[in-house]
């Protein structure tokens, strides 16, 4: 079993993501879903449009999952991020991990979602009931200080 | 040399396009490209001073040298989830 990551425009199927992990020696299986909330900063949200630099997001997501596998001690990780227009209550991200013990699984899952928020080249445009829309402020990803040569 | 420039999210709105081709002098870096875009493309004068740039799908420093055919992406602050 290997780390699996992908980006999709289709609705997420948590069972499909869970089915990517798990082994007889595992005592812990975690599933994390990120969901579009009905409210943000006091405004009623209708939907969020996820824009992505897909080719780069696929690369960064795979890199994040590989780093998490190092912490987890197993390769049993699956991460999918959805892009396009998502309504309130729909899942934008699903993360499944499994390992013999729970501590490593929680740590790896938390690492993946935090790194997704910190460095995945994806942007969210929130749409509100009053018809307005705005790009949400993101975070500045870690950028090399000097570019003598690509890594 | 020529590079392909991609814009995303807010920067696509500012540029009014999702991509363009940019002619650069030999020895150009990420910095050269950003400053040229700032002066040549209406709307990009409003780019913040510190723009995040990816070259060939990797986050890149300002002094990263560019080469013919590179894919240079201007990225607003990011965040999935």
Descriptive overview:
The complex is a heterodimer of chains A (151) and B (81). The longest helix of chain A has 19 residues, at 54-72. The mean pLDDT of chain A is 95. In chain A, strands 3, 4, 6, 8 and 9 form a five-stranded antiparallel sheet that branches. Chain A is globular. Chain A has three helices and nine strands; from the N terminus they run E-H-E-E-E-H-E-E-E-H-E-E. In chain A, 28% of the residues lie in helices and 36% in strands. Chain B has 81 residues and is α+β, with helices and mostly antiparallel strands. Chain B has helices at 9-15, 30-40, and strands at 2-7, 19-23, 52-55, 58-60, 71-75. Chain B has a five-stranded mixed sheet. At the A-B interface, strand 4, helix 2, helix 3 and strand 8 of A face helix 1, strand 3 and strand 4 of B.
Short description:
The complex is a heterodimer of chains A (151) and B (81). Chain A is built from 3 helices and 9 strands, in the order E-H-E-E-E-H-E-E-E-H-E-E.
- Mean pLDDT across residues of chain A: 95
Helix content of chain B: 10-25%
Q: Helix amount of chain A, in percent?
A: 25-40%
Sheet bearing the most strands of chain B, described? Answer: 5 strands, mixed
Principal-axes geometry of chain B comes out as globular
Q: Radius of gyration of chain B from the CA trace? A: 12 Å
Series of H and E elements of chain B? EHEHEEE
Net shape of chain A: globular
Category from helices, strands and their pairing of chain A: alpha+beta
Strand coverage percent of chain B = 25-35%
Number of strands of chain A: 9
Task: Report strand % of chain A.
Answer: 35-45%
In whole angstroms, the N-to-C terminal distance of chain B is 37 Å
Based on CA atoms alone, the radius of gyration of chain A comes out at 16 Å
Please list the strands of the largest sheet of chain B in the order they lie side by side: 2-1-5-3-4
Low-confidence stretches of chain A: none
Order of secondary-structure elements of chain A: EHEEEHEEEHEE
Main structural class of chain B = alpha+beta
How many individual helices of chain B?
A: 2
């Amino acid at each position: 079993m290997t780390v699996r990551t992908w980006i999709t425009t289709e609705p997420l199927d948590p069972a499909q993501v869970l089915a990517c992990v798990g082994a007889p020696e595992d005592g812990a299986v975690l599933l994390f879903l990120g969901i579009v909330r009905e409210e943000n900063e006091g405004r009623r949200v209708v939907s969020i449009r996820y824009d992505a630099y897909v080719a780069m997001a696929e690369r960064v997501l795979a890199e994040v999952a590989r780093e998490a596998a190092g912490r987890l001690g197993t390769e049993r990780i699956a991460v999918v991020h959805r892009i396009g227009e998502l309504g309130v209550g729909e899942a934008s991200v699903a993360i499944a991990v499994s390992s013999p013990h729970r501590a490593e699984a929680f740590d790896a899952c938390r690492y993946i979602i935090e790194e997704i928020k910190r460095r995945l080249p994806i942007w969210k445009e929130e749409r509100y009931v009053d018809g307005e829309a705005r790009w949400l402020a993101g975070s500045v990803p870690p950028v090399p200080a000097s570019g003598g040569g690509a890594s | 040399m020529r590079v392909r420039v991609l814009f995303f999210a807010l920067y696509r709105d500012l540029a009014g396009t999702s991509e363009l081709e940019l002619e650069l002098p030999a020895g150009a870096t990420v910095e050269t490209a950003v400053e040229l875009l700032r002066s040549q493309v209406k709307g990009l004068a409003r780019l913040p001073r510190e723009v995040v740039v990816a070259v060939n799908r990797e986050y890149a420093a300002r002094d990263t040298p560019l080469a013919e055919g590179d894919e240079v992406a201007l990225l607003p602050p990011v965040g999935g989830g």
